[in-house]
Amino acid sequence: MKKPHTLHIRNMVCPRCLKVVNQELDKLDLQPLAIQLGEVKLEQEPTAVQLQQLRESLQENGFELIEDKKAELVEKIKIALIGLIRSGEVEHLNVNVSDYLAQELGRDYHTLSTLFSAEEGLTIARYVVLQKVERAKELLAYNELSLSEISFKLGYSSVAHLSAQFKQVTGMSPSEYKKAAAPLRKPLDNVN
Description:
The protein is of the alpha+beta class. The chain is built from nine helices and four strands; from the N terminus they run E-H-E-E-H-E-H-H-H-H-H-H-H. A four-stranded antiparallel sheet has the order 2-3-1-4, sandwiched between helices. A hairpin with a 2-residue loop joins strand 2 and strand 3. The longest helix has 19 residues.
């Protein structure tokens, strides 16, 4: 049996992304064996024509085929962090984010951190803060949880800590944000 061909795709950060990518693969008659955030496994390698068509269709939908090992690893870091933050499990994390990433990706954190900073122009710690603030915006917009509950869910030590980071990133407090007529959220793949 042939080894499956793996494609890595940038900006696949949510279940809707999986659906869109799957539809684009179907259009090109590329049936995935497995599809998950950031990665597609195909039974066989696509032809050069299929690969070019896939690049174009992905780009039209805000995705990008990753063909560089460094970019591939950076995308895996982002997916791991977004998954952690959106899971609501941050508060239950018994290790810090650096240990979590090293364990999740099987790489030394220093290597991951250096690569991420070089490729993205910001630190992993800053990226985590930006992702947490975007998640806080989303949870505030749903209006289902108190600020204290949101703070706990995102792993903050206090509401004051969340509020300080929120204001530093957005220029307004969480309560000011909540009162704003049109919430100013960014798509997850544009947070940086």
